[in-house]
Amino acid sequence: MSDTAAPRSTGAAGWAALLSSFADAGYVRAEPAILQPAEPFLDLSGEDIRKSLYLTSDAGGEELCLRPDLTIPVARDYLASGRGGQPAGFCYLGPVFRYRDGKPSEFLQAGVESYGRPDRAAADAEMLALAVKAATTFGIDDIEIRTGDVALFIALIDALDLYPVWRRRLIKDFNRKVSLAQDIARLTLETEPKRNEYQGVLAALAGSDRKAALALVTDLMSIAGAVNVGGRTVAEIADRFLEQSTLQGGALPRDALQLINRFLAIAGTPDRALRELRALAADAGLDLGAAIDQFESRIGLMAAHGIDIGATRFSTSFGRGLDYYTGFEFELHRKGNGDDPLVGGGRYDGLMTQLGSRAPIPAVGFSIWVEALTQNGHGAAPSTSQASAS
Asked: Among 58, 210, 296, 325, fewest CB within 10 Å belongs to which?
């Protein structure tokens, strides 16, 4: 499935060989500090992750944590290096720390991250090829490749010209199947507008964007001398008012909902999905050309890397449960192994600005579940000391 046959390796020697192959491909070994600021993880993953973190604080009161993954620490080090925006690639293998019910809280994570490459489709395809190589290195040939692309969904929502509040909600919830299904169910309901004590505020917000809503709610709360209501911040209250204001106008047009549902039902091989996407865009008269062209280019580059396109599954509804993905997403599974991935990753161009970059920086990468890969393959995971020393 890859353009270069990977030698089958076992144990710590296998991981050393794999990291060496990543280095040969231009990816420098990264070793971020184990103790990290907690704020980026909480901001990007939400407060729900707090219960899984191992937290402490320094003398100045800054909240710190043992790194729960390596994607964010590697990105932070890249930005701090002064090379932000320049093409750079990193690989890693090291311990991470996260509470997992019934499983060890310290475990190993490996992976690759690529920053600053403008040739997004080529970088995406290369990441998938390297991920497949990681699996085959450890003797796993019966791989199921699952892929998706949130950029296609964003292009569809933008072309439909939805209310800003629903655009934001649908895109935010794309990577969470249950939440997205609930959003669509609510949008489908055609209810009569309900009057409430905030009817005047809701009327004033009709058609507003988030910035205007935030300004209005800030002014109203300032007049009232309040900074929060029931524990909700001004931003949360503004978002809630925007949502209610949108619902006052009833459901979205039926044709828009039908197109969203038709889009989310597209699944199969990438080539089949490409045909169905072009048909949807043509039938609806929507300009999805740039996103679909990028998808088509990636398919060709995946094939050039030796990926079996006919055996690859693509679904427009595929998402990995993390908000920061902005494009291509993928997981590798052993066939017949349910929903437990061996490798997972994708494109996250928005992460760098969230971590402090002044300008967006292209970024794509993947993480390897060392336990899953070694349990399903023929190699034993290196010990923490071996991983740190290798």
From this structure: 58
Instruction: Tell whether the torsion through CA atoms of 103, 104, 105 and 107 is positive or negative.
Output: negative
Structural domain ending residue among the three candidates 199, 229, 255: 255
| DSSP secondary structure letters along 328-365 | EEEEEEETT-TT--SEEEEE-TTHHHHTT-SS---EEE
Query: pLDDT tens per residue, the chain (390 residues)?
Result: 444 444 444 467 778 888 998 999 999 999 999 999 999 998 887 667 889 999 999 999 999 999 999 999 999 999 999 888 899 999 999 999 999 988 899 999 999 999 999 999 999 999 999 999 999 888 888 899 999 999 999 999 999 988 776 787 788 888 777 778 877 777 776 444 444 444 445 444 444 555 555 566 565 556 555 555 555 665 666 566 656 555 555 556 788 889 999 999 999 999 999 999 999 999 999 999 999 999 999 999 999 999 999 999 999 999 887 778 899 999 999 987 767 899 999 999 989 999 999 999 999 999 998 888 877 555 555 555 445 444
Residue range of the domain that includes 225: 163-255
Residue ending a domain, choose from 221, 237, 255: 255
